[in-house]
C-alpha cells in the first residue's frame, strides 16, 4: 500500500471516528468531575475557530501501535488530531509529522474540514506539511494540550496556530 493510500485510509478512519464520537457525545455531559467545559480552539489562517460541543478524545492499542484521536466538530466543520506511537500515548512528548519507525504512519496527523467542506491534511504530497501536538496533562478521564500545523488541500495552504484542547477522554 503506498503512502498516499495509507494517509487517505487514516483520514477516512478519522471521519468514521468523528461520527461515532458524535453519537456517543449526544448523551454525555460536557464537563468533567472537577468542573470546566471541554473545548478545542485554534486559529486557521489567523481566524479563530472554537469547538465546545462534539469535543472528545479516545485512545486504543492495536497490535502494539498505540493511538489517540482528539476531535472537535460542529454542524459545519470538524477537526481531528490523530497521534500514534509504539509506546502508550503520554504527556510531555511532542508528536509531529515525523514517520513512526517501522510504519508508514506519522506520530501526528491533522485533518481539518472547514465550513466550505474543504479538507486540509498535514501530510501527503506537500513536503512542507507539518503537524505538532503535545499533551500537557493526561488524566484518567481528560486530556489537555497544545497543537499547530501546516495543512494542505491540493496546493492551498492552511496554517493552524495557537491550538489548545481540553477534552473528555474515553479509553
Any overview of this molecule?
The chain is built from 1 helix and 11 strands; from the N terminus they run αβββββββββββ. Strands 1, 2, 3, 4, 5, 6, 7, 8, 9, 10 and 11 form an 11-stranded mixed sheet that branches. The protein has 171 residues and is mainly beta. The chain has one helix spanning 3-25; strands at 39-44, 47-51, 56-62, 65-73, 78-85, 94-96, 108-113, 119-121, 130-138, 142-153, 156-170.
In the predicted model, the low-confidence regions spanning at least 5 consecutive residues are: 1-35
Helix content range of the residues, please?
10-25%
Give the overall form: globular
Q: Return the string of H and E elements.
A: HEEEEEEEEEEE
Helix count, DSSP H or I runs of 4 or more residues: 1
Q: What would you call the structural class?
A: mainly beta
Radius of gyration, in Å, reads 15 Å
The tally of strands reads 11
Report the end-to-end length measured between terminal Cα atoms: 29 Å
- What fraction strand? over 45%
Largest sheet: 11 strands, mixed
Overall residue-averaged pLDDT value: 82
Gist?
The protein is mainly beta and 171 residues long.
Topology of this structure?
Layout: H1 3-25, E1 39-44, E2 47-51, E3 56-62, E4 65-73, E5 78-85, E6 94-96, E7 108-113, E8 119-121, E9 130-138, E10 142-153, E11 156-170
Parallel strand pairs: 3-11
Antiparallel strand pairs: 1-2, 1-11, 3-4, 4-5, 5-7, 6-9, 7-8, 9-10, 10-11
Amino acid at each position: 500500500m503506498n503512502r498516499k493510500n495509507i494517509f487517505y485510509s487514516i483520514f477516512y478512519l478519522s471521519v468514521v471516528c468523528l461520527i461515532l464520537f458524535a453519537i456517543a457525545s449526544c448523551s454525555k455531559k460536557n464537563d468533567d468531575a472537577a468542573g470546566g467545559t471541554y473545548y478545542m480552539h485554534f486559529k486557521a489562517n489567523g481566524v479563530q475557530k472554537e469547538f465546545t460541543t462534539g469535543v472528545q478524545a479516545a485512545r486504543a492499542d492495536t497490535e502494539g501501535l498505540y493511538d489517540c484521536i482528539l476531535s472537535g466538530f460542529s454542524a459545519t466543520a470538524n477537526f481531528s488530531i490523530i497521534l500514534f506511537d509504539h509506546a502508550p500515548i503520554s504527556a510531555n512528548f511532542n508528536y509531529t509529522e515525523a514517520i513512526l519507525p517501522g510504519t508508514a504512519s506519522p506520530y501526528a496527523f491533522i485533518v481539518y474540514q472547514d465550513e466550505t467542506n474543504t479538507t486540509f491534511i498535514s501530510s501527503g504530497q506537500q513536503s512542507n506539511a507539518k503537524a505538532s501536538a503535545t499533551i500537557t496533562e493526561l488524566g484518567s478521564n481528560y486530556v489537555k494540550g497544545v497543537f499547530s500545523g501546516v495543512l494542505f488541500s491540493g496546493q492551498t495552504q492552511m496554517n493552524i496556530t495557537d491550538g489548545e484542547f481540553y477534552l473528555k477522554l474515553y479509553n
